[in-house]
Design a protein that fits this description.
Blueprint: H1 3-8, E1 11-15, H2 22-33, E2 36-39, H3 40-49, H4 53-63, H5 70-82, E3 90-93, H6 99-111, E4 118-123, H7 126-133, E5 137-139, E6 145-146, E7 168-169, H8 176-199, E8 203-207, H9 212-222
Parallel strand pairs: 1-3, 1-4, 2-3, 4-8
Antiparallel strand pairs: 5-6, 5-7
Bound molecules: zinc ion.
């Protein structure tokens, strides 16, 4: 097998807290490795907007304000993974969210004599994530994004793009308290899944508080692919 075909047949899982730059890394890896990017968020949107059987099932729960059960999410992901040409690798993003989903994935892959090759976790200290995420402000009128002035530590008062100087605000989701809360939820949810893959010897922790390029290099290093891309 050539090294290129090793890369395109890799089966990966990508983890990272909000603000860690996971989306950017996923985009780069998808192109560098030539694997299919399977994002659970995209899958949900696809099934919901196409009104598939699984989509309607999920919508029923969502309309009642209930959580979509694991079985539905698992089936969406396995259905997608199972539809890939044989030997085509993939990179899961947003799945598995808990050990129940991780086990179901493992079992389904085993039935096809497949397995997950590596699990990449981009980790960034919480205080850095809070700093990054809570530094986001938007113009109420045109939605142009702003950040705090590094010198004054204050966001601009008015939008320079709007003639009447639209006012700048921070979304409720992006306040430091809300961000800290999102991170707590992330850690509680993810820690057991990371433990599961660490125990299986598959987990690579990649420090994410570096430039996009060096994080990318570290991921490729961990996959043993540095020289090739
Ligand atoms: Zn504006």
């Amino acid at each position: 097998m050539t090294r290129a075909s090793v890369a395109t047949s890799l089966r990966l899982i990508l983890f990272g807290p909000p603000g860690a730059g996971k989306g950017t890394q996923a985009q780069m890896l998808k192109e560098q490795l030539g694997v299919e990017h399977v994002s659970s968020g995209d899958l949900f949107r696809h099934h919901l907007s196409n009104g598939t059987e699984l989509g309607e099932l999920a919508r029923g729960y969502m309309n009642r304000g209930a959580l979509v059960p694991d079985e539905v999410t698992i089936e969406m992901v396995l259905d997608r993974v199972g539809s890939l040409p044989s030997g085509r690798g993939f990179m899961l993003d947003g799945f598995p969210r808990n050990t129940n989903q991780a086990r179901a994935l493992n079992d389904a892959l085993l039935q096809q004599s497949q397995r997950i090759d590596r699990v990449v976790h981009i980790s960034v200290p919480d205080d850095e994530l809070i700093r990054r995420l809570s530094n986001r402000y938007i113009c109420r009128k045109c939605q142009k994004p702003f950040t705090r002035n590094p010198a004054s530590g204050e966001p601009p008062r008015n939008c320079d793009d709007c003639a009447d100087g639209g006012d700048i605000y921070q979304r409720d989701d992006d306040t430091p308290d809300a961000v800290a809360n999102r991170l707590t939820v992330y850690h509680e949810e993810t820690a057991p899944v990371l433990d599961y893959y660490r125990d299986a010897g598959l987990l690579d922790n990649i420090p994410g508080d570096a430039s996009v390029e060096s994080v990318n290099r570290a991921v490729l290093d961990a996959l043993g692919l540095t020289a090739e891309v």
